[in-house]
Design brief:
Length: 893
Amino acid sequence: MYKISKLLGKSEDLRHIFIFLLLLQIVVFSPLLATGQGFSRAPGTAQDTAAAAPDSITLAAPKGDIETTIKYSAKDSIQFEVDRKVVHLYGDAKINYGTMSLEAAYIEIDYDKNTLTAASRTDSTGKEIGVPVFADGGQNYAAKNIAYNYKTKRGRISEVVTQQGEGFIHSAIVKRNEENEFFGLHNKYTTCNLEHPHFYINADRIKAIPNDKVLSGPFNLVIGDIPLPVGFLFGLFPTPMSKRASGIKVPSFGENSRGFYLNDIGYYFAWNDYMGTLIQGDIYSLGGYNIDASTDYVKRYAYRGRLGLTYDYFKNDEADVARARSTESGFELPPSRRTFWINWSHTPVRKPGRGTFSASVNAGSQLHQRLNYTNSANYLSPTFNSNVTYQKTIPNSPFSYTLKASQAQSTQTGVMNFVLPDLNFSMTTVSLYELFSDAPSTGKWYENFTVGYNLRARNEISNLVSARRLSGVNIIGETTGDTLALNLDNLQELWENGRRTADHNFSIGLGNYKLFRYFNFTPGVNYSEAWYDEKFSYSFNPDSQRVDVDTTNFGRVYQYSASASLNTTIYGTMYFKGKKIEAIRHLMRPSISYSYRPDFGDARFGLYQDVLTGIDLENRPIYQRLGRFRTGLPGTGLSSSLNFSIDNNLEMKVRSKADSAENKFEKISLIDNLRISSGYNFAAESFKLAPIRLSMNTQLFKIVGVTFSSTFDPYKVDAEGKRIDEYMFDFSKLKVARLTNANLNLRTSLNPEARRTENSLPSNLPDLGPDLDPLLPEYVDFKIPWTLSLDYTMYYTRGEGLQPDRFDNTFGINGSLSLTEKWKLTYNGTYNVTANNISYASINIYRDLHCWDMSIGWIPFGFQRGYNITINARSALLRDLRLTRNRSGFNRY
């Protein structure tokens, strides 16, 4: 036995001895080479093995026991036992043989027995180093001793820890066969990644099939080294596959107001790498059930989506429970109800010049989301909307179009509105000169004229039949509103109840011109026209003293207007000689615009009709102006308005604290925007001056956002509080206008990690699946020490006449606090100061138990009020290993 790395450096004689031994080794193994046994040099490798590196050797094999090249190296030394055909590797030893690799402090290669043996070593301090790590076929094993036969592909491992999916198996002895299965003796199965796990399943014998499952004999649960009388006669633990695969979904169990239940029992069909379907259901002991089928699909670089169908039978025979809930929460659970729901989301990858198809569908029975809510938003939402859209921009043209089908439904009234289809065709603003002429632009003023166009055609269908009536007018055939059932028998009625419209909008620009160097002048013309499938004509019936309404199938509503605007920008700067403030700059943007629109109530436009509606007590006829279309009518009366506004911005330049020594300054915004606006209608008979509106928004100390808006009426009121056509202007008494309403909002958000750029999700989140209890946490980040968001809103409205003034103010708070590295508290609440009550509140406490999670949620108010205490294993593999105690809207009684 010779230590090559030490002997080679002592004398020339020893180098010659080493070369001689290498030649002898070749002679000894030459018969094996001739018969195809043993090993041979790699192709292209010189026969002079003395040229090889002393600590890294590559040996290639012919067709024999050794199937491919064996590559090995060692940091310390390599020893050969020629007579025994054994190689010893010391110090950071590594072996690579095909798909297999082995690393350890010490490795022995026995070519005679075709075995690899690895072990750890202890250093001078007695610490164990170089624990063997074996990898083969994507599976990793860490153990104190490893023995592996590379011919039979069988192995025996002592004191091993292997990882199977999310689980870890600690075994005293493991044997591995040629099918890559291994059998363990005296095992601990856990999802805790510590050397001494917090909990584990104690099983005497375990069989593991990589990428498939782990099977065990009788087992019991051990938590904190305390054996519990909880276990079973056998165990089956699926392990995640490296690729998609079909399989059974293990259900969860529990109890609520619908009885004992098994939830999410089903089967997953992996059709291919791009599509999969999960069919699952819930079963309740009181007779209810739920069936859910969802399909996920994806096409790389094209689209992805999900289609889900749910059918639920809610059964509740306890009428007293329903009445109690109706009295206390205002929501009565029906004794039994069959509901369904459809979810479809389709998201495309947008590509230039190509059309995109997208979908967002949420529709179903009226009470489905309230009976099967998974979060507060679904329960509280009054409406659900659905859209299916195809959109395309035509290349090398100003045209684009959108074809959409939409649906909206109310969870409170059951009314459904459909738009089938909804077509939008538009042309972006283009130059009229370039549209009709190929000649290059010469800069003439008329070359600035532009035009834009938009068409929107809609077919609106609703199951709500509008009431046939007119405000203050008795009509023949007057009816009240009604709701049609959505079924095939009512298709004709639903179609007749629909409305067909087409809106055309033209925007004509007459250019932008500079006046007196500092003013921008912009004139413009607008024209729009709408087509409807209904137009009304009115006639008075003297016999019945009522108005008869006739309907035609087509009518058009058109309107036009002209406008012009003049605006400029004014700067003003005040300089200081102070040490902290250098200057204050005031920026003003005054704007004046004029618009003209004719009186479309005139009979020549045919949009309104002056109708005889009755006879008064003095036998005089009563006329009333009625619109001839259901919607889209322009306002009556001539409009000749002058509108004006002033936008203000105030900034201050102060010395920067970071660069005070270098006399550098920075800008601070005092007022982001302060806007004053009003208008004057020359054509109005009274109240020509419009209300004065004042609004402001800014940031205080860079952390407090302030938004303020208010409206002032410039006219007086009489003793009864009725508005009269007299101005309040009295500058001697500093009276300009009276406040009619005001709104103030203050908000701030404090977060020490707000500027953090990391977007990764925390690793301590359990996989709770798609159905989330609103009392359970969806996201917890223990890395953020604390957050605090405050919101204050004040609203004031002055009462008119006998109506009292209204004053409301609310205060909201939400945030989180990491009490320790493992404890976190989140809170959310809204307090109505005026009503002196709490509108909404929730408190959640989380505890990170390393491989376990604990959460406590409490909602003290509303139908959802209740609590939830849950302790569960973090791994999705053991998601049903949990303890839950809860009370909510469904099982509070």
